[in-house]
Amino acid sequence: MLEIKNLSFNYGRRKKEVLSHFSLSLRQGGIYGLLGKNGTGKSTLLALISGLLTPCQGEIIYKGKDVRRRLPDTLCDLFLVPEEFELPSLTLARYIKLNSCFYPRFSTEDMRRYLDLFELDADLNLGTLSMGQKKKVFMSFALAANTSLLLMDEPTNGLDIPGKSQFRKLIASGMSDEKCVVISTHQVRDIDRMLDHVVIIDGSRVLLDQSVADICRTFVFRESSSRELVGQALYALPSVEGNSLILPNAGGEETEINLELLFGAVLAEPDKIAAMFHA
Ligand SMILES: Nc1ncnc2c1ncn2[C@@H]1O[C@H](COP(=O)(O)OP(=O)(O)OP(=O)(O)O)[C@@H](O)[C@H]1O
């Protein structure tokens, strides 16, 4: 669905490259978690995918077309929810009337359903909302646009506690085999159970690009105070129970992914972790 080929980008000629010879493919029908340390270029990558920035080198092909051409066919089929944004001081009804025409598959019924999920009225004035409420409204609009590609930058930042689980329900209810959702975040606990795929980047390299099914087939995630197990672990983080451990999955065990632990392991030992998938 989306091919990023040999992409390089910097903000001005004298600045260091943010992304360097970077390649990645995204397939439809999945929710991707895009993870990386602060400043690795996740937001920049989402802006490049949306055609808002121009690569210095390389290309991004979405459904056979270069996103940088910003063709109507491309723009009406992808949506970016940035980490920070402003909404105009309009009623929601007016906002929908003015903007939904750019998205041929926009569904007012879906929009109402998503607002209900966030316990928001449809009769709103966008100018009077808090940042968290604006985020809920904009994410509802983004999903109701029913684009094949939905990019979300730190979507759970600023959401209240119920808002985080409502967000998970929102994505689950708006997901289909035709859609691909990319969620860039540091709030891994907000999204770990909803992901199909994990991508960890460091700017020039994709350190990990694996399905959650393959990750859980390859590793066991365990809490333990056993010293023996710590010795066998590929990576360990101190926890309340002793240690959170990531171990090779020799016995075909099924455990739930621990994204924080996986992220730490991949940053500390990228080659060792990558080699485990080919073992
Ligand atoms: N408008 C800009 N002008 C110049 N440099 C920028 C601009 N936006 C981002 N950068 C730089 O580009 C690099 C990547 O920034 P980006 O926001 O894409 O990273 P990120 O992975 O999303 O970070 P975070 O996780 O902290 O949100 C950083 O070094 C940042 O300082």
The CATH architecture term of the largest domain is 3-Layer(aba) Sandwich
Q: In order across it, which strands form the biggest sheet?
A: 6-7-8-3-9-10
Radius of gyration using CA atoms only? 20 Å
Number of discrete helical segments: 11
User: How far apart, in Å, are the first and last alpha carbons?
Assistant: 29 Å
- Give every kind of bound small molecule, once each: adenosine-5'-triphosphate
The mean pLDDT is 93
Total domains, how many?
2
Main beta-sheet strand count, sense and barrel state = 6 strands, mixed
Strand content: 25-35%
**Low-pLDDT residue spans:** none
Order of helices and strands: EEEHEEHEHHHEHEHEEHEHEEHH
What characteristic shape results from the CA principal axes?
globular
Identify the CATH class of the largest domain. Answer: Alpha Beta
**Based on helices, strands and strand pairing, what is the structural class?**
alpha/beta
What does this entry look like structurally?
With 279 residues, the chain is of the alpha/beta class. 33% of the residues lie in helices and 26% in strands. It has helices at 42-49, 72-75, 92-99, 108-117, 131-144, 161-174, 188-191, 212-218, 227-232, 259-268, 270-276; strands at residues 2-9, 19-26, 30-35, 57-62, 65-66, 78-81, 149-153, 180-184, 197-201, 206-211, 219-224, 235-239, 242-248. Strand 4 and strand 5 form a beta hairpin. Helix 10 (259-268) crosses helix 11 (270-276). The longest helix has 14 residues, at 131-144. The protein is globular, with a radius of gyration of 20 Å. The model has no long low-confidence stretch (mean pLDDT 93). Bound molecules: adenosine-5'-triphosphate. InterPro entries: AAA+_ATPase, ABC_transporter-like_ATP-bd, ABC_Transporter_VariousFunc, P-loop_NTPase. This is ABC transporter ATP-binding protein. One of its GO terms (molecular function) is ATP binding.
